[in-house]
Design goal:
Blueprint lengths: L2 E5 L4 H12 L3 E6 L2 H10 L7 E5 L5 H15 L4 E4 L15 H29 L2 E6 L13 H21 L4 E8 L16 H5 L4 H13 L8 E4 L3
Parallel strand pairs: 1-2, 1-4, 2-3, 4-5, 5-6, 6-7
Helix pairs in contact: 1-7, 3-4, 4-5
């Protein structure tokens, strides 16, 4: 039975991805900062308790990620797919208002956290000469928008580069990576905007289950296929 690790699994896109893979019969390692949120995600999945594990971890902490990685491998033995979905932004995000502390918070979670998780699971993938890494990115990882802010845009550009470098170095070892780059998604992250959108506007956006469907596609393509990037938006 294959195993997927999903960071940011306590809400939004991460929760939708975890539910999708659990429904397909996979083992799912739920990773997030709050156990209460992970417990809620686990309760929403149709999987039995032995197939869903909760791992409380702040991915911006390298030591915590290393410990989480060891715990996941001890529980499930091996990891077939890593999905880096954890991401944050801050309300005060323009160059005029962004603090040094918030710059580091965003970069540490969105970019460093993904790298730490790759470090945790890449050796096992190499040993088995197979594995898929999916990074939940953003359209602003390709073209900046003022609404996103300096730290978020920079973190997502970096995440796109990290994805490309994984493919550049690891595809010959049977490991592939994909950046999924959606435009706006209706998730709790929108509440961090200086002016959060209305319910009507959110309803017209991409939804978490749309991104989950993309992640499922990437994870289940034949091993010979490397889908470097997916871009998507709503009507």
């Amino acid at each position: 039975m294959p195993t997927v690790v999903v960071t940011g699994a306590g809400s939004g896109v991460g929760r939708a991805i975890a539910a999708t893979f659990a429904a397909k019969g996979w083992n799912v390692a739920l990773v997030g900062r709050q156990d209460v949120a992970l417990e809620e995600t686990a309760a929403l999945t149709p999987a039995s308790a032995d197939r869903v594990g909760r791992f409380v971890c702040d991915v911006s902490d390298a030591d915590a990620v290393a410990a989480m990685g060891s715990a996941v491998l001890a529980r499930f033995g091996e990891v077939d797919v890593l999905i880096n979905s954890a991401g944050i932004n801050v309300p005060r995000r323009s160059f005029e208002t962004l603090s040094i502390e918030d710059w580091h918070r965003v970069i540490d979670t969105n970019l460093h956290g993904a790298y730490y998780c790759v470090r945790a699971f890449l050796p096992g993938m190499r040993a088995r000469a197979t594995g898929t890494i999916i990074n939940i990115n953003s359209d602003v990882g390709k073209l900046a928008r003022d609404l996103a802010g300096a730290a978020y845009v920079s973190s997502k550009f970096g995440l796109r580069g990290l994805t490309q470098q994984i493919n550049a170095e690891e595809r010959g070892r049977g490991i592939r990576a994909c950046s999924i780059c959606p435009r706006d998604i209706n998730t709790p992250l929108l509440d961090k905007r200086p002016q959060p959108p209305s319910a009507d506007v959110r309803a017209q956006m991409l939804q978490p289950e749309d991104i989950a469907a993309c992640a499922w596609l990437v994870a289940t393509l034949p091993p010979r296929v490397v889908l470097d990037e997916i871009s998507l938006s709503s009507r």
